Amino acid sequence: RKKAFDLIVLGAGSGGVRSSRIAAQNGARVAICEQQRVGGTCVLRGCIPKKIFVYSSQFGHTKEEAKNFGWNFEGKMQFNWHTLLDNTKKELDRLNGLYTKTLQDNKVSIFMGDAKFIDKNTISVGDEVLEAENIIVATGSHPVFPKNLAGTEHCVSSDEIFDNTTVREYPKRVTIVGGGYIACEFSNIFYGLGSKVNLVHRGDMVLRSFDVDLRKNVTKLLQNQIDVHLNTEPTEVTLGSNNERIVTLSTGTKITSDLVLLATGRKPSTETLNLKQIGVETNEKSGAIKVNDYCQTNHKHIFAIGDIIDKINLTPVATYQGQTVSENLYKRKGKNQVSINFDNVPSSVFTSPPVGTVGLTEEEASKKLGSDGFDVYESTFTPLKHTISKTPKKSMMKLIVERQSEKVIGCHMFGEDSPEIVQGFAVAVKAGLTKQQFDATIGIHPTAAEEFVTMRKKRE
To answer: Is 201 a catalytic residue?
Structure first.
């Protein structure tokens, strides 16, 4: 017998949980289906555990940085991998409980199992059959490995790092393949934890879609910390006699590691949903669901949000989409619909120091406005803390300003606290503030953030 709802949500990640809660709070009868655990990639296999690992990796350098401030730590600092894993698991279990409770408190019915379409309004999940007037697909994405790499069965993805079972022994030697933010972050994490790290990337710099000066700074950071193999690809991964991984590179170099992490991209999780059977249009290459500016598919009552549409794959984007879709359906009820705006979405890369960025890159500005259509203001300096610690850490800050309107159209930073700083300046960029308004703002001293309102000299 079918169970009837107003809305069915497939996937209980950040976007799915938000859309379910908002719909329920506006009077809808809501069901949510989840294959694994409530919380999704960000909470359980991505952002949250990653940030915990980043914090852990930064403590290892505290002893050296504190010396010139008068501190003397006697004895050797010791790192315990199992303590980190176990305490991370406790936090993820807590968050899983909170997300589940949020759904229950809002009277959202939770169904665990593989969900798939039977027809345009009907979903099967486990032994249950559900039907609804509207359906939101929010099943996220999953890691993919290179098809031409032999031996991927000896490798792991970022998902397995955080599952508390796959990598129970601390890896003293780590090889990471990839050049995106996941590869850069894990390179920095394992370096900070004390591992010997090799990064293998087929490009000439990391972070392909980021501003060129951010790319240069992060590439240089990694080259100063670990062994970076650029313009290079792995061709084979084999097991050695002591269960070590031997990675053969396209250059002929062989690297011996305890762990090989493939950070080589993610793919929308659409394969098992029966989308083709009900005629939902998808991208033939990636499998991503095609949607309009309101996250509607070609079937107007079926929506898709988050990584599944492969637009901007960030958790805050998915939650924004989920909230907007549910408010359009059950708060606005078809009137004064709000579309999804992907302009000026801030993002970060949690290396140490991290990256914060919002708006157009220099390359994008040049393509949109021409080389003479914008000005660049930039500053590179040693933060006060490191003038004392003598740690070789620089900060780089950069504003891109449209010449005709004087609007700040890009704000980029590499340096400590950059995600926190750029989150604030993202409001200014989103609001269309001008360089004169930045200049008229008095800074907080001494901070790195004040540099964004004191830069006066244009790049020549």
So the answer is: no
